Each structure stands twice: as C-alpha cells, then as structure tokens.
Amino acid sequence: MNTMRFLLCMLFVVNISHVAARPTDIYLVIYTTHDGHTGHVGLAVDNYTIAVRDTIINRVKTTYNDTIRTLSLTYFDLWGPAEIRWDEHDDNLASRYFTLPRSSAETRITADYLLTRGLPHSYDYPCDALVRLRTSPMMDARLKEIVAGIQEERPYFNSREYNCTDFVLLCLNRLLHTSLDAKEYIPFTWSSTPNEFYKTVVAQLPVQIIKAAGDEVEKSFVQERLINSVLFNQSTHHEKTND
Prior knowledge:
This protein is α+β, with helices and mostly antiparallel strands.
C-alpha cells in the first residue's frame, strides 16, 4: 500500500509539473527587403525563472516547478562583414553571430523594444514584422543548444548560401523537425530572403502575427534590393557599429 501511494504521489507531481510549465514563445523578427534595403531576419526567445511551489493533493503535500516569464528576451542573429564587395557575395566570409544581451548591464530586450526601437546592435528603427510561435521551456532550452551548435558548426557567412535568413531557418528546422524553405531566384541561383521567410512562416507555421509586414513583402529581392539600391542609394548593410 505504501508503495502504491508513493507511485500515485509521483504521478501527481509529474502531472502538476507538466501543467504548471507555462507556455513560452519564440519571436521571429523580420526587416523586409524594400526600397534598396537588404532586410534582415533574427529570432528571440522568452527568458523565464523557475519558482518552486507547494500544493496539497488528496491531503498529500507535493512540490512542483512553476515557469514564470520575465518578459525579457534573448535575441540571436547572424551578420557578415559590415561591408561586402560585389564580387564577394558567393564567398564564405567571416561571420558575426550575436546573442543579446551579452550581460545584465546591456539593454533589456523585449517584444515592445523590437516593435518600437529595433535592434540594440543594428537597425535603430522598428522591425517591419514580428510573429510569435508558442513553445515550451523545454523547447526554448533546446533552441539555445541548437543556436550554440550552429554557431560552432558554421563559422562563416555567405550572402547567397548561408545568410541571416538561412541561419534562422536552420534553427527552426532543427527545433521543429521541419524543412522550411524561403528561397527566391536571384540571378543566377536561388537564395533565402527575408520577404520569402515571412511568407513561408506565416503560411506553414501556427504563428501569431504581432505586426504584419506591409505590401513590400510581396515584391522581389531583385527589384527591391538590386535595382532600387541605385535609385535609393542604399548600401549592403544598415547597422550600428557591431563589435
């Protein structure tokens, strides 16, 4: 009888822990390609703390872990060199991976920060689109492991074959066991782009659109970046000093 009661208590603890683990989120941050701007894609994940709580079930005191969101985010993205020559877009170049904030002394990142101020290390204007994907603390922990593994596995940036969009796609595909693709034709090959990324995740993942992209998301990279870069006199990247 004592053994059976012990097993039932353990079952209650497991069930409570599962229920009490409140959902968390991944945020996909998109700057669309438009008016000569290259655009950008990054992702952020909820931070949370674990509070140990007691409860009584069938007059038995049990303990469970309660997940509490801090409303702050950890942000990840990939950049190449600050300046890329026209003849380097097919080359593997030095990568710059960012995991922000790097310390508690740096800017606290929240969904509202992304929507109103942009990125603390780069674009200093609001993101063009923000979508949220419901996850769990276990998935968030796994995502951070995936990011760290990719950063070590791929220490390079390639505009055509492994850019910021490819990095986020790779993270999502490994986490969700999917095969998302966001390529469009840019002479003379296919490459992943922010606009195609937005359309892909909205169509294929159960996301909540916090801020929808504008009409420019339907336009091509060739028109908006390559042709309009001359018209709008835009450089390859539009970033603060990333060091």
